[in-house]
Amino acid sequence: MKNLFYILIVCFTIIACNKTPKEKVENNKTNIEETKNAEVAANLHSFQVNIDGMTCEIGCAKLIQSKLYKIDGVSYAKVDFEHTNGIITYDSNKLNEKEIVQKIEAIAGGDLYSVSKTIELDTIIN
Questions:
Q1: CA distances from 22 to 7, 8, 11 (A)
Q2: Which of 55, 73, 75, 116 could form a disulfide with 95 if both were Cys (CB 3.0 to 4.6 A apart)?
């Protein structure tokens, strides 16, 4: 009977020592999330694009902006009619700058808008 008691104590000790403390689990989750966020941020790129052919704020600039937001991989898009440009942030794992330019130029059948210049930006805009 005494041996059974010692065996039970050893088993409970082993089980108790193998359990991970809640703080350690939460710290591990936080580290994983931070790593994922850093990887995503490393893949985000921003650029400015000059867009020719816009004739109005609502019909052109807002249309282009809304179409950009529908592209998988674009996380930010702001088209400014007054300055005839747009700023776009995108995930380089999903698409590239050239593909975005092609999509802008294809809006409205491809006859209205053209991109005359692109400038890569150092800061990521979100």
A1: 27, 25, 21
A2: 73
Is 54 in contact with 60 (CB distance < 8 Å)? Answer: yes
Q: Would you state the pLDDT for residue 13?
A: 63
Q: What's the token pair of residue 79?
A: 């088209």
Average pLDDT of 99-122?
A: 93
Q: Which of 8-12, 32-36, 41-45, 57-61 has the highest mean pLDDT?
A: 57-61
Name residue 80's beta-bridge partners.
Answer: 85
Percent of the chain with pLDDT over 70: 66
Q: Does residue 118 contact residue 88 with C-beta atoms inside 8 Å?
A: no
SS3 100: helix
